[in-house]
Automatic annotation (TrEMBL):
Protein name: Reverse transcriptase domain-containing protein
Retrotransposon gag domain: residues covered: 95-193
Keywords: Nucleotidyltransferase, RNA-directed DNA polymerase, Transferase
Alphabetical list of Pfam families matching this protein: Retrotrans_gag (PF03732)
PANTHER family, per the entry: CCHC-TYPE DOMAIN-CONTAINING PROTEIN, ELEMENT PROTEIN, PUTATIVE-RELATED
GO molecular function, one term: RNA-directed DNA polymerase activity
Amino acid sequence: MNAVDRSIGVDNPCLADTIAAYKANRNSSNGNQNKASGGAGEVEHIARGCSYKEFLNCQPGNFDGTKGTVSLTRWFEKMESLVNIYNCAESCQVKYATCTLLDGALTWCNSYIKTMGLDAAYETTWEELKKMMTKEYCPRNAIQKMETELWNLTVKGTDVVGYTRRFQELALLCLTMVTLEYKKVELYIWGLTNGIQGKVTSSRPTKIQEVICMAHELMDQVVQAKDAKDADNKRKWKDDRKRNSDQKLYKRHEAGRVYAAGTSNKTGYARTLPLCDK
């Protein structure tokens, strides 16, 4: 699988759609401009892809192999994001990515190149490189723990953004579980809450990005409905509290009025002789 086809945008799951639309518009524009010249410009653009200088200008970051699985995951994400955005040619992806390795990771890469030969090493695909680096820098017991976490991963409350982020982090390293796109789609849907899970499944999406966008939109609707209900309940509570307070004031007023009326109706001592208290 080409890295260009993989999902990106952990914090903004719909980014891939925006990029795809941009590429489609750009290709359409280039095609119109190149009709008169026989399309030579478009062919040249596709063949060239992005240059190494353009790649470095994006500050791709480095990986030295000392900071564990999280660091490797972040490096994978960064490389794939740049490959997608700048449309790097498939033949250049591994070459550009491995130029960002440092220290022990660079030593490991050089050893691989010496063993395979330069040309053969750079024919390695991005997916193959990821598998090799995962095996080298992520112990099998760590991978097994992540596979278990990925299998049991579910949305906590309404935090579908956090669920998506963690799912994509784990999917980058648990390659055997999500090698096929439909497997990734099924696993992501499995972790959604029941109401959203049913709606997403009924739409029969085939791409992970479609599923992510749909799940986020549906969860936004759930949150908005919950907020509206909470606001309505709060208003009703305030109204009930005011009503109870008014009723208490009314009862106090009535009790005072009755007491005053009873006191004023008592008949005083009207005889001429002194009143005996005994």
